[in-house]
């Protein structure tokens, strides 16, 4: 009896933990389903047969075998899916590189140097976040036209970088503020100067900030539609969102749902890759300064 | 080779219009351990950072090993610095932390390996070489920080309150470690602290600073036994020296409250009624029988420390005095005690706070740039 008692209570405890664990995991699985369902449905639907694909996407999975018809028909829109994907990648990657480079230097400057009107300038930069960018599209268009950069991916990239910078500079300044000054001083005594100091010592320490800035820049540039639609005018320069608009509008009144699903799939994949690659740093970046 | 390691000539520092260092002259002997000590805001850290080259010098010159380094980069001055917050590179292993400075100087790999090995052997951090700073305890981090200084083989080591972040026990052992390191390496070391125990135990020479000026320089013994003014007298020593307001009666006698005390001051420039300050350390206040006492005081409260007790007392005229009491006879708050001292243990300061000469003793004169002040 004496030995049975503890084992009984042990059993009860085990059952309790089991129930708590199952509830925890069940909730987790349910949430995962909600988040994963759209992706799964899109990917499955994009592999339906040609004729099947033209029908409304219900049920969303292939009912008569798997095929890549949808991707092939997506390729018949615009200048071909490869061209538009490359356009989008070029613009997005260039936006990320430029944004990170400029905001890294600007954030460092705002965090470490003392110069007149520093805070006024900083507030001015942040204040531009309050201007809806749609309202300055016309002036932007005119400026780009004057510079000979309208209907060019470079022009579009510059616009994206400009729009991305206020947030990024703010983010990078915070990141640099969180790095103790002594580390930089120790590096200066060790003989690290200027660019070496920035790259070898400081960059690894602000990497979470850089990841956050990079993810935001990439996603915003990748998904941006309105500026791309207005600033680009020739077919072969369109980025993916503009192409998707054309696909969604359909031909001769008929919407090719298969092509739409395939396009959505193509547009999703890079975002997933970028996020999964950088999410570890990104989470830390958003948390930086949250405690302490 | 010169025997002076660091020479400061009329060093000044201003932040905007505010001058915080008011012209400091200092000669530091090769191989000595110099401690800058003073209350917070006295400019000791700023002075150290100017020697390191982290802070620009507004006016004056800094020489290290006979070379004018006033406008050189920190890495070209032949110095290494240990920070209060350790300032290790968190993304590098201990080995990389130690090697970083040498890599920056393009030292060849074999030499880096050799020096890192040597430094980690001295500091006993060999088993930690592949860890990150985040995986180390405070004491280990401080060792690594010191190691990073050692591998650079500097002419001068600079320490900026290196032990302030450690707990009391570790602080004592690291203090001994630093003293041992100084003996082994024999380099000039400049050490900033606000902890006078560290200053007294480590230093060959103490520089007492206040408000951006040097109040006194000297060996720990000189500073303790012959403070140049009431500030130094009160700052060095714990509990602090008793500084009692007294009045010159004339003929070598002073008055505190109703008590008259015979002294050996020559008093040539004093007139009866002049104010002066009598300084006496707590350990020199001896409790004596009623009939033998010079000064009567009432015990307000006491601290029992085992080997000794500190009595916090009040004189008849209300002035507070502290006495160290080594007898095992218990004392109660409210007791009236009689105190006496050896005449040699008394120190006198004029109304401006400067040390007064005695008849038979040569006193180290306060440095020219020290400033008079009211206690």
Main attributes of the structure:
heterodimer; A: 292 residues; mainly alpha; MetI-like fold; 2 domains; 13 helices; flat; B: 375 residues; alpha+beta; Rossmann fold; OB fold (Dihydrolipoamide Acetyltransferase, E2P); six-stranded mixed beta sheet; five-stranded antiparallel beta sheet; 8 helices; 23% helix; 32% strand; elongated; disordered C terminus
CATH topology annotation of the largest domain in chain B: Rossmann fold
SSE series of chain B: EEEHEEEHHHEHEHEEHHEEEEEEEEEE
Low-confidence stretches of chain B: 359-375
What distance lies between the first and last C-alpha atoms of chain A, to the nearest angstrom?
53 Å
According to CATH, the homologous superfamily of the largest domain in chain A is MetI-like
Computed over alpha carbons, the radius of gyration of chain A is 26 Å
* CATH class assignment of the largest domain in chain A: Mainly Alpha
Helix proportion of chain B: 10-25%
Low-pLDDT residue intervals, each spanning 5 or more residues of chain A = none
**Strand fraction of chain A:** under 5%
- What is the approximate shape of chain B? elongated
Give the helix level of chain A as a range of percent. over 70%
- How would you state the average pLDDT of chain B, rounded? 89
Q: What's the SSE pattern of chain A?
A: HHHHHHHHHHHHH
